[in-house]
Amino acid sequence: MAYKCNTIPLSADIFSLSIHPTKPLYAAGLLSGRLEVYTWGSEEGEAAKEVVVDGDENYSLQWGTRRYSESYIFSAGANSLLKLADANTGKVVSKAYIPLLKTLAEITNGILSYRVEYPSVITPLSTAHLLVGTDSGRIHLYDVRENSLTRPAQTWKKVHSDYISSITPLPSGGGGLSRQFVSTGASTLAYVDFRKQGKAIISSEDQEDEQLCSAYVSGLSARAGRGGEKILVGNSSGVVTLWNRGEWEDHQDRINFSKSSGESVDAIAALPDTFLYQNSEFGKFVAAGSADGKVRIAQLGSNRIIETLQHSLTTEEVKGAVASAGLSVDDEGVGDGVTELGVDCEGNLVSAGGSTIKVWYWDEDAPASQLLGKSRKRSPDETDTDTDQGDEMSSEEEEKPLKKNRRKKRKGGTGKAKSAGPQKFSNFSGLD
């Protein structure tokens, strides 16, 4: 295998991972209520840095870059409070409560009661807007162009019958701010237009499997008048389904990642255009993380698995390996699945699960015949045989509402990174 990894040990199990788009920074929201931000040193021997935020009980977090100069990080957790903090200092810039839910069934002595609404996912729609999905199936849109968070600018109610498991923005055809996105929850996918307030524009047919994660891919071959844009959705049966942009009623193709093992696909990430495998032509690749601790990489088009990376071992694998030696194994930390995947600013694949983040990099000492993950830029005269026609569907176009049917429920690069290991450079509190 041509991949090696640097490992970042965490102080508790990770719930959410966010990767800075332009810097080697990795933010982890932990089940202990801490938000930890790590970076690797740029030179050998230079200490890596860590920023720690206490007391937020983070369920989800996301980077946000405002005004193209200052970097911020958004977080939300069990206190139902959305926070905007400076990613470098941890200083909270603004806070806002996620709207409470009216619970008509809980009227006591004629008084209408309200229930706290818990966030399940945070995603920036653009540099101007932030999306927050909740456990009740709602999606709130916040305007983050100002220095303060206020009430949501828009809310879509009951987009899904269960919690929002993922939100994926759809790029604008004209290169402007994104106005459309898809979400997954329960057993459906939904398409929502930023300009259409109060309802999901299109909801898919029941997929008969819990939809857990999603990713956007462009630049695929365009056939039969279809654009080269797809949404990839991982589900509880170990399959990733492929959806053509604009055809939201049902998926058009599928890739079996871990169906044979019965493990769900809990995380998915589209790999950069510079990703290569062995001596193959340039193509599109996608990574999927499963509950068995494995990251499987597939090439789109052929839809076949080309490589498997081991983020963690299952209990059975560890016990089998030590049984012959007559040893016992501590189950703690064993069997942690892959819950988060991403790509950092250097094109390295990043996996997270349990109390570990792994940054995968190309092994420069590997045989030249192994090119898995080796990233190189195209020469000016290299072009794809197929053109990307994803722009033919503009965000200004109306997409036809399709009939809504009904379908299951929730789950609980380039260059070697140089580092002396993660070390703290700052601690701060007072986030609440």
Automatic annotation (TrEMBL):
Keywords: Repeat, WD repeat. Residues 382-399 have a biased composition (Acidic residues). Residues 403-413 have a biased composition (Basic residues). It comes from the Eukaryota. Residues 371-432 are annotated as: Disordered. The keyword Repeat applies. SUPFAM superfamilies: Quinoprotein alcohol dehydrogenase-like (SSF50998). This is WD repeat-containing protein JIP5.
